Structures are given as structure tokens and as C-alpha cells.
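pasting for ref
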Amino acid sequence: MAKDKTYSVRWFGPFEDIEDIKEFEKQNKSTNFQLYVINGYKPRARYDSYYCGQTQRSVYERFKDPGHHINDFRSISAIWIGSISNVDPIHGDINVVENIITAQLSSIYGENYMLNKINTRFQKYNTYVINIWHNLKGNRIQRYQRYSLPSDLPDVIGHEYEKELDAHLLFSASKITWKNVE
């Protein structure tokens, strides 16, 4: 029987352009950012689109790749970069987290507004993703701006596999309240 897996993703942003990301990554060399979400407008689009991606290099270097989806946007509203902070993730871990976040974003915004091809093949074990949001100074964000990624993407996303039914269930819980405990 496979064990449940939990991933804590610390998100930093919002960034408005990739040069800001380059500087941020330089200042935070000890952190590996494996995930990113881009929100912006495609050419001639009236509504914004989203793209969730992953990298094993710096996010800035990944965005410089020819044919990267960042080039599909006419204008960028926000970019958030994330680091899986509770484990030292291998490529498979990053894939699982990206898949769950992409599936959740697709259920929120609709597949037509996602630049990702939605992967409908989930792992056959229970997985939980905890999203923790930080501003560019590194402070945890308690209040979220409406219609922003931190307000829309739930703080907890769960994927449970029902072996008897061979079914996958995606659920979420929004807005964890953080309190100091002494």
C-alpha cells in the first residue's frame, strides 16, 4: 500500500516581469524554485489565461527557453514562483504537485483558460498540497487581493485515490487562518 504524501509549497510574488524574478532568485540562492504560475492575456484575448509549469533550473532560465509558454502571453498580470519546502523533491514529486495544481486551476478557471494540457492521469496514492503565500519581502500574506492567484487557488488541495472504485477525487479547503501559538 502506497503511503500518503504531503507537499508544502511556498509561493512568492507577484512578479510582473522576468527580470524581477532573476533578481529575486539571485537574492535567494539557497532556495530552489521548482514551480511557477503565469497569469496574463494571450493576443486578442478578452479574458486572462493561466499556465502552471515546473523547472529544475532557475525559473528565469526556464523562461528564456525557445518556445516557452511565457511567449504566448501578450501581457502578463502576475507570475508566482514556488518552492516545495518540506521535502527535497525529485522530478516525480514536482510532476505530482504540478499536476494537482493544474487540475485545480482548471476546475476554477476552466480548461479553455489554461495553456496547459490537463493531465488526467493521477498517481494511485493520496496526495495533499499545502500552498503558503509570501510577498516579495518574504512575509506571509494574510489578506489576499481579490481575483488574484492566492485568493483563487485554495490553501489546501487534496487528491485521494479510491482503490476499490479506481476513482480519483480532488478536493480543496480555502484560506487557512494562521495564529501564533505560545
